[in-house]
Amino acid sequence: MAANAREVARACLNRTEAAGQYSNLALDTALSRSDLSPADARLATALFYSVLEHRITLDAIIDARATLPPSAIERGVRQILRLALAQLLYFDRIPDHAAINEAVESAPRRSKGFVNALLRQFCRDGKPLPSPDSNDFFTYLSVRYSVSPALAETLCGVYGKERTERLLAAFAVPPPITVRVNTTRLSVAEFLTKVPGATPAKHAPSGVILPPNTPLSPLLEAGFCFVQDEASQIAVAAVDAHPGMRVADLCAAPGSKSFGIAADMQNTGDVFSFDLHENKISLIRRGAAALGLSCITAEAGDARRATAEALGTFDRVLCDVPCSGFGVIAKKPDLRYKNPADTAGLLPTQREILAAGAGLVRPGGVLVYSTCTLLPAENEEQVRAFLKTHPDFTLTPFAVGGITAGGFLTLTPDHDGTDGFFVAKFTRKG
After folding, report:
1. pTM surpassing 0.70?
2. Active-site amino acid positions
3. Is 407 left (phi over 0), alpha (psi -120 to 50) or beta?
């Protein structure tokens, strides 16, 4: 039972590491092919993501305690140790002896003694976390918070050392499940009566934070809400869509921002949702149908090639562009290990989409640019570059739920309790 869950988790981790497969895809595929019970599937998922989220920390423990050089530890044995250590550190309900015994049993015969000795000594020592040299601050942050040294260094360059550590500590806390109420079907107050323990979001007017272990499926199936972080809801609020408007969402998948815009419009007017990939368009259509949002039209297309000649002009245009994602590493642990320098190729695409979006805005209309990253090159610098080449647009102040912005806004988990997010609002002169 539990061992089966551990085996599935270990196989997924091996596949993710060896083949470079996206973690969510590897896990979804493995779970669909397994015969795990719902409870064991949840355990496999928790184990998988725990190792993924703490991999650098776990490896530091292994390498500091191993009697072998790091290169001599077989990949499969290292994976067994990572899984066991994750259980010892982060799973209070799993007895230490169960985690150790399963690891020893799973290890090759030649490695059983090594695995057993390392894990038992770790427990006898009180399960201490590694203590890297704080003088090498980037390495310290990397090991302490399990992020690439390059990411730690980049964030320190933007936010300073103390703020970066607060950010990384905030990313280490599992975020709550936040939903946006479908206000075309019921009010926020009515929704709150249906979910005991649910609380209104701090800033987003239609946002609700669900208590842990809330059964989500019945709420989604009834069309009462959809999952959307508060930061993303704030970006939608900045669009300021009203009933009867014509609105374009240029990078719409999986559709939550389009859904929020349509709800703000009380399902009247027209919301055009575009995405490059046809398979993602079907997600938007299904989601809109489940929510009863008939004003949404979803079509596949390259946002960089969108023109007013083909589509007409719009009252509002949202460009939630592809980005490095370094504001959502709490939800996408693969990003922890990325080098920000490798994401520079996204910058031209972001500029092209923003320019295309600008061409769709009618005089007096609004353009909103957003990302889920914290890197200025994708945020403030893109805004400045856009204004230089588009003098017919001006930054527009906005306010959402007590948050005010003089044209653009950066949200962070340590300060705002949301995903890391950037929102800029422009108005076309007219």
Report:
1. yes
2. 372
3. left
